[in-house]
Design brief:
Shape: globular
Largest sheet: 8 strands, parallel, barrel
Helix content: 25-40%
Number of helices: 18
Distance between the termini: 85 Å
Number of strands: 17
Length: 407
């Protein structure tokens, strides 16, 4: 029709984006007059609009200003559109996320105002003016938000159907919960879940000479009942492959996949690589998701360690019949301070008493460094403890375990 090529490209992208939720900004470059169109709701008074285009290239993401391109535009889905999308199609979790569910969890599942970068073919639509609430409030929230990107890449590499087929061929899982109970009964000391961890966001690299197989074997020789294996790559330098390597090396301890689970896909992935148990964090998962994931875990013959940080989290977790194993993390998610008094306080609460009445195994997590810490946690009512940093940083983990338990 004789229109300049850049205007034809703009019209094409607008047609692909649809009429609602599109904000357009044109610059004076190439003689185009400046104008703005706002669709899909009133403009937030506190926001400054600064759209840009990110062009994909082999060298990564290349950001160009509107003055150099002649225009810049941003595609934004309206709140109604994003909320109407069935979550089950993307995640396998039950549809919908009510305000009550959002209030249940301390960690927000994703940015409340939508993703700041949205891919669209060879380009990305970017909004650089999103409000402050769209920034992660702490490292756990940052980790959880990144899982969307990570899981999408994994699904591209291995679709769930192929993953599920591999799970069917895997050897049966070991009984993680029974192992903890048996050890406590035999030794009258908390059963140890020793953690295979190279690094953490707060501490950086904890063990520079990290060898997951060597560490796992030393843990088993030292008397660990089960092992916890960090699988998060970006923030903890872990890997799902460590589970398989440890099992292939002849280690017989049941293995816990220490992952930040937000979708059933991750449970299947953990089982595929040889995990016998998996971590579910109540601060991240509302009860509807927890209940569903617990059914998935059980269907695969695995055990779920459901982690709580407060009495409120424990109360709602206890309303789910499938919960059999509870972990109390002594780390405050608001301040990130660690104190064993958290375990004491929670176990002395009515929720803690219910755990005892129901004969649930409770695991004390974080802040355990000495025999006094082990004894204190046991006196609170914990029949198991999960210990990572104080053991993995030692060059002789076997001796470190024996020292920790006074053996």
């Amino acid at each position: 029709v004789g229109l300049p090529s850049h205007l034809l490209f703009l019209l094409f992208c607008l047609a692909m984006a649809g009429p609602s939720g599109v904000c357009v900004s044109m610059s004076r470059a190439r003689g185009v007059s400046v104008s703005r169109a706002h669709c899909g709701g009133a403009r937030h008074p506190s926001r400054r609009r600064s759209p840009a285009i990110i062009r994909r290239s082999g060298r990564g993401l290349d950001q160009s200003s509107s003055s150099s391109l002649g225009f810049a535009f941003v595609c934004r889905a309206t709140t109604e559109e994003s909320e109407s999308m069935p979550a089950s199609e993307e995640t396998g979790l039950p549809k919908g996320e009510s305000s009550e569910e959002e209030e249940e969890v301390f960690i927000r599942r994703r940015p409340p105002h939508g993703r700041p970068r949205n891919p669209c073919g060879p380009i990305d639509f970017v909004v650089t003016d999103y409000v402050e609430e769209n920034e992660p409030r702490n490292i756990l929230e940052e980790i959880v938000w990144y899982k969307d990107t990570e899981i999408a890449a994994r699904k591209d590499a291995m679709p769930l159907t192929r993953l599920a087929a591999g799970v069917k061929k895997a050897p049966p899982p070991r009984d993680f919960l029974a192992a903890l109970k048996n050890t406590y009964k035999e030794t009258n000391q908390p059963a140890l879940i020793a953690e295979v961890k190279k690094a953490s966001p707060s501490k950086g690299v904890i063990q520079p000479n990290f060898d997951p197989v060597r560490i796992a074997k030393a843990y088993e020789a030292g008397g660990a009942t089960c092992l916890s294996v960090l699988t998060d790559e970006k923030f903890f330098q872990g890997s799902f492959s460590y589970l398989r390597e440890i099992r292939a090396a002849g280690v017989t301890c049941p293995l816990l996949c220490k992952e930040f689970v937000v979708e059933p896909y991750q449970v299947f992935l953990a089982r595929f690589y040889g995990a016998d148990a998996i971590l579910l964090i109540a601060a991240v998962l509302p009860n509807s998701d927890l209940a569903y994931l617990l059914k998935v875990v059980k269907s695969l013959g695995m055990t779920a360690l459901v982690e709580v940080h407060t009495e409120g989290e424990l109360e709602r977790v206890l309303s789910i019949p499938e919960v059999e194993l509870v972990g109390i993390n002594n780390r405050d998610l608001g301040t990130f301070e660690v104190t064993l008094e958290t375990t004491k306080r929670i176990m002395e609460s009515k929720q803690g008493q219910e755990c005892k009445d129901r004969d649930l195994v409770v695991v004390g997590e974080s802040g355990i460094f000495t025999l006094d810490d082990v004894n204190f946690t046991q006196e609170c009512g914990c029949r198991s403890i999960l210990v990572g940093e104080s053991l993995v940083k030692e060059n002789d983990p076997e001796t470190a375990i024996k020292t920790l338990f006074g053996r």
